[in-house]
Amino acid sequence: MAFDAQLAAGRLHEWFVDSSPSCDEDHEGGDVPFCLFCDVARRALVSGAFSHVAWVGMDALPYPSHLGTAACRASVVVDVPPARDPAERVWAIDVLARSATPVAVFARVERLTLAHTRRLQLAAASGRGVCLVARPARERQSLSAAATRWRVEPAPSSSARPRWTVTRLRDKDQPGLTDERAAWIVELNGASGLVHLPPMARDGSPAVPGAGARAAS
Amino acid sequence: MLVVATVAQVERVAHACARACKDGVRPGMTLAHARALLRGATLWVFDHDVRREGRTLAALARWAERFSPIVAVDGERGCEGAGDGLLVDISGGEHLFGGEIAMAAAVRDGLRLLGFAARIGIASSVGAAWAVARFGKGPIVRVLAGEERRALASLPVAALRVEENVVDALSEVAIRCVGDVLDLPRSTLPARYGDELLHRLDQALGTREEPIVRLPDRVAFTASRELPGGTTNLEAIEGVVKLLLAQLRALLERHESGLRRLDLIFDRLDAAMIPMRLIVTRPTRREKHLWALLRPRIERLHMGFGVERVTLAASHIARIPHQQEGLPREGLQDEIANAIENDASFAESLDTLANRLGHDRVLRIERRASHLPEHAACLVPVHEPVAKLVADESARWYVPADRPSRLVSPPEAVRVLAVTPDGPVIRLWRGERERRVVGSVGPERLGAAWWRRREPARDYFRVQDESGRWLWLYQDRTSREWFVHGEWM
Questions:
Q1: Residues of chain A contacting residue B401, judged by C-beta atoms under 8 Å apart
Q2: Backbone torsion region of residue B268, taken as left when φ is above 0, otherwise alpha when ψ lies between -120 and 50, otherwise beta
Q3: A26 interfaces chain B, CB cutoff of 8 Å
Q4: Is residue B180 within 8 Å of residue B146, measured between CB atoms?
Q5: What is the pTM of this model?
Q6: CB distance B466–A52 less than 8 Å?
């Protein structure tokens, strides 16, 4: 897949799920891109770059049957209850990210401050893993030290496969990036559980109307 | 073959082989008497070694833990306080072996392979099982619940586990069977023969509780240090714990083992004992790691008037394969070494998390063989070993594709508008919000698990609403109500 090549190891990546007004964005786990997280976890394990997957917070844990047998075996769940102060979750992510083992850490955290994100970015940089943190959409304007920021929105699909629009909002390595130049429409393959670019994007046409050549790379 | 114990300069038979028993030899008989009965036969006589017998019984009790977690040596009976049997609580586990008789046969066969002959009694009270194992007819005797009185009636009084003088006293008035004792008025028994007879009688009949106290956990490696006069100095205590950790590491290293569970016990001057238990995800003997886990707890220790003894006990150990260190790592060897180190490092991170958050908060996912979505997986603490049965089951079990990425638990009731009563859905109301359904796939029928309880079947649909979000809906086949059970997010 094109966009997950941008998820560099040793970095913190933030994800925001945009729900339409008709959706129930307030329910637990309503702002976690589970399908994309599962896809990244599976690909990370298959590539051999990561040996373990950690899910911090029960609200970040996807349904195990969707995750698949191999990823389930490599998974560890750290049940840190949601609290007003995210310090406990930040500490748990920090411990896992600093491990000498390459671990892909997935978490959902609210009310992160700039200091928290700096700590997580430093932890990810000092370890060999990668941190993907889902945050509520209302925190998208907050300051952060994350290497990349992503937005995920459900996209209408004419096929029987769920689709999402994935937009890269920020990349520290490419400061001049804008929304229009880095957006992908991705589709879930129900049989494999993996996320792919739909055929219309694979043949070289823009993934999202108005997007540049990067969408088909 | 006779095993003989010398009591008050008299040699008495402690145990006799089956052949000797057949010729009339009984435990307690003098050796001279036994020799007279066995005249003409080749006789092997051994000294009774109580300690060795105790060690053997303890080893057999550990062996028997494969049949039940609650096993005890039947102590204080036989010669000089040594046990002469095992007590096993088989409640709830007998079906795993095909029933009580099959389980007893498995125990007997296992003991036979180890070179021991065994008589087994099964009953709902320890006393009745003890009696029929020693005095019943046949190598395996089972007493059904409620049948204790009838089963014991014909057995000799000694089957009640009473002292020899009580047996003799009863014998003098021609009371030789348990049935005769049962016929006596209960109120007269304590005055005539002491409290023990009634106590044992009630235990045998199951009217008085007699718990089986399981063997204590095996403590293989212990290090301890006394602090004469006691101390409340935290630095001194920390120094002692570090010293003990080094001793324990040396012990474990010598045996190529690591600890899974560590008990740290502080004996305080005011007689209070403060235990601390540490459980680690995988066997380890790394002092630095163990100290990092122990230190925050020791800092919170309430030392009272002072701590006078510190004990470290590795109460659960496991073997750590020998690892070569110091050789240049190249190629495959390098990869293997990295994998081992990586796993150890990850396990240490999990220990750090579990030590602060609690062991029930660091979990792994265990797949279950169930087609019902809510029973397809469960979470278990990472320090619990993976059951082989579950691992095999997980490998074999068919996992249906196209399951949602998030399960709504419990399922959320929704109102729907469908083309026909059985679907497909064209509009749904989740709470007060109305959604137009633009796509629907299904139904997929999941039947009820009839062997558990009567549950209605469900018809599942994957539906897409106007915003592009996919939901996993089902209709209860009995109540015809609709629920959201999952989402693709």
A1: 190-193
A2: beta
A3: no
A4: no
A5: 0.66
A6: no
